Amino acid sequence: MSRIRLRRLGSDQVPSLRRAAVDPDTLAAAARIVQDVQTGGEPALRMHAERLGDLAPGAPLVVDAEGLARALAALDSRERAVLERTADRIRTFALAQREALRDVQVPVAGGQAGHRIRAVDAAGCYAPGGRFPLPSSVLMTAVTARAAGVARLWVASPRPTLATLAAAAVAGADAVLAVGGTQAIAALAFGAGPVPPCDAVVGPGNRWVTAAKQLVAGHVTIDMLAGPSELVVLADRTADPDWVAADLLAQAEHDPDALPILVTTAGDAFVDRVDRALESRLRDLPTAPIARQALAAGFAVLAPDIVVAAEVCDRLAPEHLEVMTAEPAADARRLHHFGALFVGARSAEVFGDYGAGPNHVLPTGGTARSIGGLSVLTFLRVRTWLALDDATGAEGMVDDAIRLARVEGLEAHARAAECRRAAMPAGAKSH
Predict the structure, then answer these.
(1) Between the CA of residue 302 and those of 31, 106, 155, 182, 294, what are the distances in Å?
(2) Chain center to CA of 213
(3) pLDDT given for residue 334 in this prediction
(4) What are the boundaries of each domain within the chain?
(5) CA 210, 213, 218 angle in degrees (round to 5)?
(6) DSSP summary character for residue 299
């Protein structure tokens, strides 16, 4: 087996992380499944779940709240305590986000206007159940939805483990759909049998989940179209090569398509030290075969200084970005595009994965330039309102509306505004 050697790139050789969220063949195949579930309901959902190995023939589709409570009671007490403490940290952060958002009321010509922030009624949260079942993703999505104020909450996960079911109980989910992939996303979006249609469908998953989310995005809100996981470590000569290697491997073991990247101002000799640390850590790593595949596609960028290194990081706009430098707080201020930022060598990305507070469902493939990660905002709607009850105060605005409507050639609009001038009571109190 060849030794690990991260591919070296100059700062002008860095590839874009932008890529299609899902390939056309997967999208086409997923579309047929989505259509089946949308039109065929529970029988179609069950057929695809059994065909793809999610369910044994005749097995229950849903684990209800009582089943979730039994799973929580059956879980090892230490594991239960970990889930509960992690949920508390996620909830505390999410509630702080929610409390930072306020309804608005401002005076406008002739009255008042404003917005109200309210949660969607129902949300569906997906948690992967493949190579590595992720109860942490149940907590990240479902706890955040409840903190936002979502009233009805479902989780979907194929072949859910005891820990996954217990996490759903801790998060306050109403039930778990024991189905995965495209068919699960379609059921959450459109409803199927006992599964109600949801207003928001969120959570990480494989290409089939991503394809389904893309297909239902016009019907429900989604969080993002995420691809394989990414980590960029920004390091200077003060960074510990072994810590850098540990974090790159933590990312690499996710998936053969995960992308571990080192951006450093410390030169080729530093990358050599990281390579040696990677090789040492891989010797007894149970997930080494997966990690080696990911590392083979990863790379190290040799930057001449921190300014260029920060520019490289911004061009990449990665899912996760760690800053391991002598002045991490100052260097972090140079960075603008990332899903989540981890400032200082002790702020390992793994702590973001496992519930320090901020969410771990994050944009990939360079999309962090335009969207953020999952948060309470994912489940919230901003609804504006307008209350005009002072004809005198509104007169100038009404005249402008009439004129602008006629500029656009919309006479009925103009006349709808005109008929308000005379009818609006003058001097009434604002709403």
Answers:
(1) 43, 52, 43, 41, 20
(2) 12
(3) 98
(4) 24-223, 227-372, 389-431
(5) 145
(6) E
Nearest Cα neighbor of 170 from 244, 247, 79, 261 is 79
Q: Look at domain 24-223 and name its CATH class.
A: alpha beta
**Lookup: tokens for 123:** 């949300």
pLDDT tens-digit readout, 194-204: 999 999 999 99
pTM of the model: 0.93
Instruction: Give the CATH number of domain 227-372; options: 3.50.50.60, 3.40.50.1980, 3.30.70.580, 3.40.50.2300.
Output: 3.40.50.1980
> Across the chain, which distance is largest between two alpha carbons, in Å?
86
| Cα 224 to Cα 308: distance, rounded to the nearest angstrom | 29
Evaluate if residue 428 carries a pLDDT over 50.
Answer: no
Question: What would the DSSP string read from start to end of 76-109?
Answer: -HHHHHHHHHHHHHHHHHHHHHHHT---EEEEET
- Paired tokens of 36: 């089946």
- Name the helix (H) or strand (E) containing 231: strand 230-235
* 3-state DSSP assignment of residue 156: strand
Active-site amino acid positions: 319-320
Distance (Å, rounded) from C-alpha 207 to C-alpha 155? 19
Q: Do domains 24-223 and 227-372 have the same CATH topology?
A: yes
Sequence-separated contacts (24+) of 382-386 with Cβ below 8 Å:
382/115, 382/116, 382/117, 383/115, 383/116, 383/117, 383/118, 384/113, 384/114, 384/115, 385/113, 385/114, 385/115, 385/116, 386/108, 386/111, 386/112, 386/113
* pLDDT for 281 beyond 60: yes
Read off the pLDDT of each residue in 271-290 and give the average, rounded to a whole number: 97
State how far the Cα of 127 lies from the Cα of 247, in Å rounded to an integer: 23
Query: Distance between CA atoms of 406 and 85, rounded to whole angstroms?
Result: 61
Residue 431 has pLDDT above 50, yes or no: no
Structure tokens at 341: 């930022």
pLDDT at 423: 66
Q: Alpha-carbon distance 44 to 396, whole Å? A: 58
**CA dihedral of residues 184, 185, 186, 188 (deg, nearest 10):** 90
Q: Residue 279, Cβ neighbours under 10 Å: how many?
A: 15
- 208 closest CA partner among 318, 117, 129: 129
Give yes or no for residue 170 having a pLDDT over 60. yes
Residue reference for tokens 């980590």: 231
The band of 355, judged by pLDDT with boundaries at 50, 70 and 90, is confident
